[in-house]
């Protein structure tokens, strides 16, 4: 089964990270090894850019909610930083010969934090709910057609296609298993009950979550501190000040904060992530229904000026919608800056043929976070070179979906992908006719067919070859999605914090984090 994920990379591994930290493109280590003489009674506190939209995996509007949910919920599978699936709530798994089914053997003698026993029926309740009506993560397991309880500790999952992509989803939000009792009683937001190393004790919606160690947890190596707290702090300077003062043990670092964070004496770790910034358009609204206009927009984006300039090299400029570490990355295309270079003349010619005159205006909705607002300001200047005026519309985190995808009142968005790391999930969320970030629904059948083929394969080499064909189509037929750059996640940790590995996704995981005795 490890071959299924051989070229995937994501999520920090259980237990202690490597003795020697690995370096990434930003010349920062990606981990801090476990130190000696740690304090089992310590608290670890973290300042995060994003507020949590929900503590219910099925109602989660963003993959970044996982930072708040990881302490509470174990997943069926665990995906390590070197791209291998490991047992978590499932101890073993076997795929059928025809690649249409996956049989999972479950861990025995486990209970949810509310005392309910963990079994195959609980898994079925959660997966049926995740793919059912009202689920915000249904697209991540859209090909799951049936969940069958074989016996108390065995469950069989059947798919219409996309078995390879399903494995990754079972290591993310769809694989987070909650107590059926908490689900039935509707207490998932106020008293979430999972099987995780910690239990939520104090919940301030959209602001902070406090946690205490779960009693009798099956993997005590994941519990090296007694309590944890994760706090939403969207303003960059506020997080930095909290780290300096000792209020926090660690913070998420924005691209332009690196030198300031280093000056505090904190240890910085980083890794290129699956968070890719992009523009997306509603292809049912003129002029974005015209492929030549979408192509012109790709030529107007100066990706190097944003990734290497504005973001100081902490966001790799590229036209592919997933990072180099992804099984979907096409090395032949690479960053693709020679395919869609910043070329104002080409853009002007295309816009002129499409009938767009100087002074054409359109609104772009984005989150009111520091980084996205700055990127949009740069895009305003770049598009002005071709006579296009962007009206910025910043909204609180989570508001993009409402404006762009649901009410469709704003035809363009600047956003970032924060879901499952599998390329199939990126496509499911952004590029298929029913995708949330493709409100216009324009997608060629060739692209759809290739996407299905890529999601179904389990051999990494086969998947890479298929997604190479997908990228050829992506370039030939400009879609609603216009990637800008793949961000590097950066974290600053106070002196004495150890056993932390930077994950490759947009969420942060502190499984086994430790704090040294004072």
Question: What report would you give on this structure?
Answer:
This protein is α+β, with helices and mostly antiparallel strands and 518 residues long. It contains 14 helices and 21 strands. The chain has helices spanning 66-69, 120-130, 163-169, 180-185, 236-245, 258-262, 291-300, 303-310, 344-353, 370-384, 399-406, 423-430, 445-456, 460-476; strands at 31-32, 43-48, 77-79, 85-87, 90-95, 101-106, 144-151, 154-159, 198-204, 208-213, 227-232, 250-252, 267-281, 315-317, 360-367, 388-395, 412-416, 481-493, 497-498, 500-501, 514-515. Strands 2, 9, 10, 11, 12, 13, 14, 15, 16, 17 and 18 form an 11-stranded mixed sheet that branches. A 4-stranded antiparallel sheet has the order 5-6-8-7, covered by helices on one side. A hairpin with a 3-residue loop joins strand 9 and strand 10. Helix 13 (445-456) runs antiparallel to helix 14. The longest helix has 17 residues, at 460-476. It is globular. The two termini are 43 Å apart.
How would you briefly describe this protein structure?
The chain has helices at residues 66-69, 120-130, 163-169, 180-185, 236-245, 258-262, 291-300, 303-310, 344-353, 370-384, 399-406, 423-430, 445-456, 460-476; strands spanning 31-32, 43-48, 77-79, 85-87, 90-95, 101-106, 144-151, 154-159, 198-204, 208-213, 227-232, 250-252, 267-281, 315-317, 360-367, 388-395, 412-416, 481-493, 497-498, 500-501, 514-515. The chain is α+β, with helices and mostly antiparallel strands and 518 residues long. Mean pLDDT is 90; it is low at 1-25.
């Amino acid at each position: 089964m490890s071959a299924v994920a051989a070229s995937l990379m994501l999520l920090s591994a259980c237990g202690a990270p490597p003795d020697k930290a690995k370096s990434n493109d930003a010349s920062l280590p990606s981990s801090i090894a476990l130190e000696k003489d740690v304090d089992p009674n310590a608290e670890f506190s973290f300042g995060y850019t994003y507020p949590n939209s929900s503590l219910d995996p099925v109602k989660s509007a963003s993959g970044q909610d996982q930072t708040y949910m990881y302490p509470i919920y174990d997943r069926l599978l665990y995906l390590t930083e070197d791209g291998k699936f490991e047992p978590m709530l499932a101890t073993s798994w076997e795929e059928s010969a025809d690649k249409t089914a996956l049989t999972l053997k479950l861990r025995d003698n486990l209970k949810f934090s509310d005392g309910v026993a963990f079994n195959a029926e609980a898994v079925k309740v959660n997966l049926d709910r995740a793919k059912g009506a009202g689920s915000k993560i249904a697209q991540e397991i859209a090909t799951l057609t049936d969940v069958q309880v074989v016996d108390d500790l065995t469950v069989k999952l059947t798919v219409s296609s996309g078995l390879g992509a399903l494995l990754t989803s079972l290591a993310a939000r769809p694989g987070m298993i909650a107590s059926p009792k908490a689900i039935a009683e509707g207490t998932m937001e106020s008293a979430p009950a999972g099987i995780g190393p910690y239990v939520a004790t104090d919940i301030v919606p959209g602001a902070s979550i406090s946690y205490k160690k779960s009693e009798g947890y099956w993997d005590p190596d994941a519990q090296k501190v007694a309590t944890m707290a994760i706090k939403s702090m969207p303003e960059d300077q506020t997080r930095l000040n909290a780290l300096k003062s000792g209020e926090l043990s660690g913070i998420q670092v924005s691209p332009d904060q690196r030198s300031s964070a280093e000056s505090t004496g904190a240890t910085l770790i980083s890794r290129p992530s699956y968070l890719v910034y992009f523009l997306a358009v509603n292809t049912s609204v003129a002029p974005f229904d015209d492929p030549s206009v979408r192509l012109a927009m790709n030529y107007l984006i100066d990706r190097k000026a944003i990734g290497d300039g504005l973001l100081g090299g902490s966001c790799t400029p590229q036209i592919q919608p997933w990072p180099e570490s992804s099984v979907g990355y096409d090395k032949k295309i690479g960053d693709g800056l020679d395919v869609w270079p910043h070329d104002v003349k080409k853009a002007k010619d295309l816009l002129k043929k499409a009938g767009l005159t100087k002074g054409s205006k359109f609104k772009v909705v984005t989150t009111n976070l520091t980084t996205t607002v700055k990127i949009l300001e740069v895009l305003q200047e770049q598009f002005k070179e071709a006579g296009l005026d962007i009206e910025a519309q910043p909204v609180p985190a989570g508001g993009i979906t409402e404006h762009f995808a649901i009410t469709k009142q704003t035809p363009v968005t600047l956003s970032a992908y924060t879901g499952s790391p599998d390329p199939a999930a990126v496509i499911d969320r952004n590029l298929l006719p029913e995708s949330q970030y493709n409100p216009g629904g324009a997608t060629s059948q060739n692209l759809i067919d290739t996407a299905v083929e890529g999601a179904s394969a389990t051999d990494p080499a086969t998947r890479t070859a298929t997604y190479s064909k997908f990228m050829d189509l992506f370039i030939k037929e400009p879609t609603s999605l216009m990637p800008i750059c793949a961000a590097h996640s950066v974290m600053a940790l106070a002196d004495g914090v150890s056993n932390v590995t930077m994950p490759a996704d947009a969420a942060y995981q502190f499984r086994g984090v430790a704090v040294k005795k004072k």
